[in-house]
Design a protein that fits this description.
By secondary structure, the chain is α/β, with parallel strands linked by helices. Helix content is 29%, strand content 27%. The protein has nine helices and 16 strands. The strands form two sheets. Strands 1, 2, 3, 4, 5, 6, 7, 8 and 9 form a nine-stranded mixed beta sheet that branches. The protein has a seven-stranded mixed beta sheet with strand order 12-11-10-13-14-16-15, with helices on both faces. Strand 15 and strand 16 form a beta hairpin.
């Protein structure tokens, strides 16, 4: 049976392994930010913790930069020797970022490999690109993941699940701005001009600022103050009130509900359920801090067919984002 390598954020491989086991995947091996598993009949995109997966990976242990480059080239050549490559394909090198010195090592290997690639397959090498454009579908190309200086996995196929590093903004009031920007990609939509947003627990305003940049009209609810780009703007109205007590005036329906509150997930989910039951929002992005609970059990409960999310939303996704820490992000569309 062909194996699958799942890559997640560093130090979250144990949670990823637990999630895979919970869904009856057989875990074979793991490292700081990766888990090797036998596949199952579940949709890979439904998993929370992996950011991307390499299909049918070859596990390699090679010493020198030149030998590693040749190993990677030979893998690609053998896989494609009977194929006529005419269109762009992905060529991605990745690695464990916490391993000191590994970044420079991989840069040298990639440079050495590209010299060999251009020499041996000049026309094909020009078709390689390192930008991921399609998510949740099988991508063809060459994918190399280093988990040590001489140890790496190679694959000709990969799936990326939408998590990605976002560009910061100097006017953003907080790091949480990066989470909401990333969450839009996961959901597949974002606030539009003149749409309405209610941001519960808004302070210091990172999520409100993100909606404001898109010319949405934001109602920011928090006893705390807004800062930087979210402060004193015509598109953001700040109301000093407890987010858990706030109710939309005249049962108004907002296009978006944002909620990033440092509180027990059960309380936050209770708040979301109330909003969905009262049809106070059409779309939602909610952050759940799992320092209070077992995240895998939480995710399992939310995905249960009898959960309020399955009953009250037409679609939802739960992901551990690139910019998430001890939290997961829930995005969805109300029924």
């Amino acid at each position: 049976m062909d194996n699958i390598l799942y890559i997640c954020s560093s130090n979250y491989s144990s949670m990823s392994a637990k999630e895979l086991t919970n869904y009856n995947f057989k875990v074979l091996n793991s490292g700081t930010n990766w888990v090797l598993s036998e596949p199952d009949n579940k949709k890979l995109s439904d998993l929370c913790f992996p950011h991307y997966a390499l299909l049918k990976p070859a596990d390699c242990n090679v010493q020198s930069v030149n030998d590693i480059s040749r190993t990677i080239f030979d893998f690609f050549f053998e896989k494609n020797k009977d194929n006529k490559i005419e269109k762009k394909f992905n060529l991605i090198f990745s690695f464990i970022t916490e391993e000191k010195g590994l970044s420079n090592r991989v840069k040298n290997i990639e440079k050495n490999f590209m010299e060999l690639f251009k020499k041996r397959m000049s026309r094909v090498s020009k078709l390689a690109e390192n930008t991921i454009k399609n998510y949740n579908e099988i991508l063809e190309g060459l994918f190399v993941f280093f988990y040590d200086f001489d140890k790496f996995f190679i694959s000709g196929k990969a799936i990326y699940f939408g998590q990605r590093r976002m560009k910061d903004d100097a006017e953003a009031p907080s790091r949480s701005y990066l989470k909401i920007e990333e969450a839009y990609y996961i959901l597949g939509k974002e606030p539009q001009a003149d749409e309405t947003v209610c941001d519960l627990g808004a302070s210091p305003g990172g999520w409100s600022y993100s909606a404001y940049k898109r010319s949405a009209k934001v109602l920011a609810i928090d006893n705390g103050k807004l800062k930087k780009g979210a402060f004193d703007t015509p598109y953001i109205k700040h109301i000093t009130e407890d987010a858990f007590k706030f109710k939309p005036v005249n049962n108004k329906t907002y296009d978006w509900l944002f909620c990033d509150i440092v509180e027990h997930p059960k309380q936050v989910l209770g708040l979301l359920q109330k909003w969905l039951e009262n049809r106070w929002c059409r779309n939602f992005i909610v952050n759940l801090k799992f320092g209070y609970v077992d995240p895998v059990s939480l995710i399992t409960d939310l995905k249960d067919k009898n959960s309020f999310l399955n009953r009250l939303s037409s679609t939802f996704k739960i992901k551990h984002l690139y910019h998430d820490r001890d939290e997961v992000t829930l995005t969805g569309i109300a029924k």
